[in-house]
Amino acid sequence: MAERRRSVRKKSFLRGCVYFNKRRSAIDCLIRDISDQGARIIFSGAVNVPDVVDLYIPQKEQTIRARVQWRRGDEVGLAFPRARRARSRNSAIWRTASRNLRRR
To answer: Burial of 71 by CB count in 10 Å (0-12 exposed, 13-18 middle, 19+ buried)?
Structure first.
């Protein structure tokens, strides 16, 4: 199977917690690999989580809004939509700055 990700995921063994239902529901998970664009997480058993969740990573003291991309038994693939927007915005700023520098 060909790799479709735009950024390389790093193997990890981070503890995590998935929050949903306006943070009224939480399920512990293990983050098996992660990048600035997404993550693969594993639960202790098959679970049913909504399409949009908050992934909390205690070791990094970071909470990331994520969208479920796929589900396979006790594993879930997450995408971090804000990372994509931030990268696009930064790319647009860089292109504009480069154009302005070339015009001088």
So the answer is: middle
